[in-house]
Amino acid sequence: MKIVLIGPTYPFRGGISHYTTLLCQALRERHEVKFISFSRQYPAFLFPGDTDRDPSAEPIRVAPVDYLIDSLNPCTWFKAARAIVRYEPAMVVLPWWVAFWAPQFFIIVTLIKRRIGAEIVFICHNAEEHESNFLKKSITRVVLSWGDRLITHSSADTGKLKNLLGQDADIITAFHPTYADLSRQRPGKDEARAILGISGTTLLFFGFVRAYKGLDVLLEALPMVLKKRRVTLVVAGEFWKDKQKYFAKIEENNLGSAVKVVDRYIPNEEIGSYFAATDLVVQPYRSASGSGITQLAYGFGKPVIATRVGSLGDVIHDGKNGRLVPPGDGAALGQAILDSLHEEVLPKMTAAAEQTGQLFSWTRLVDILLAGSK
User: Fold this and answer.
1) Fewest CB atoms within 10 A around its CB: which of 95, 124, 225, 367?
2) Taking the model in full, what pTM does it have?
3) Would you say 235 and 209 are in contact if contact means Cβ atoms under 8 Å apart?
């Protein structure tokens, strides 16, 4: 089958870029795939991080890639659409995550629909943006209504899209595959802790630091944990906003000796060290649709302590491969961490996490993607 895949890839960084790259690899094992990516994603003022380029010395990448789409140049949107029409694919796969891409994807998809009979499949990373509003929801409805099929990573997102597009919309609930293949480095726990300059029981908060991810809740819960266990919390990821409020909370609760902050994007070759050093991955999210961090943790065989939001409850089985607590509840989060670190509990949860990681392969996702194809 001839397939067109649209989305970010190297040299761009981040979860969506990694996702489409790994998906391309898996699709090309069985099919002919034309991968169309971006020459420019966002104008600088819309990206709060230092850069949208991947600094990894060992980036994950595929070839060939056609870098045709400039988000700010409509001429390139038409150029990409014409290239797709000439290719005559049976299927076109696009990611959906923010309404910023509505004009570009609307032009491309409508031109494809008018010229050829390719099936349009949207992989919806977010049914709703984390900072959504009426306009963004309306734009999302317009663009996604052009999809023949939509794939989500959680039953919660499927429900949101059904409410947005109608109960008859063809929406498939899949899963978020593992990101563990991003890192080829797999040091042992002691070696990893030496690399990071830490020792003893370790908790990990990983990824971009944004308000909805609830790092402040974890910092509120940490004194409760420290009263009974000596732990180190590693916060590894770039702060997008309000960095000082987190440092103020660390100082206010006298947590300086228990918290190691690495305020930068973590390149691929370092990911393995952070997860190898860790006993528990903590995701105290206030809201979420899905999370690549959860699947990254399971890919490294690490239990996850998280809140019961979005798709997290679909993959985290409370008391088995992790724990689930209410969002915003620091006391419940702290107790779940303590319970999970118990010497009789942690080994069982770790073994279950390793088994969970084996379930979420890219091959299985490709099977789901192609199962409903025309």
Assistant:
1) 367
2) 0.79
3) yes
The closest of 22, 33, 20 to 84, measured between CA atoms, is 33
Please give the DSSP secondary-structure letter assigned to residue 11.
T
Instruction: Tell me how crowded residue 9 is: count the other CB atoms within 10 A of its CB.
Output: 27
- What tens-digit pLDDT sequence spans the chain (374 residues)? 999 999 999 999 888 999 999 999 999 999 999 999 999 987 766 665 667 888 888 899 999 999 999 999 999 999 999 999 999 999 999 999 988 999 999 999 999 999 998 999 999 998 877 666 788 889 899 999 999 999 998 888 899 999 999 999 999 999 888 887 787 778 999 999 999 999 999 999 999 899 999 999 999 999 999 999 999 999 999 998 889 999 999 999 999 999 999 999 999 999 999 999 999 999 999 987 667 899 899 989 999 999 998 778 888 999 999 999 999 999 999 999 999 999 999 999 999 999 988 888 899 999 999 986 65
Query: What CATH code is assigned to 180-357?
Result: 3.40.50.2000
The architecture CATH gives domain 2-174? 3-Layer(aba) Sandwich (3.40)
Comma-separated ranges of CATH 3.40.50.2000 domains in the chain: 2-174, 180-357
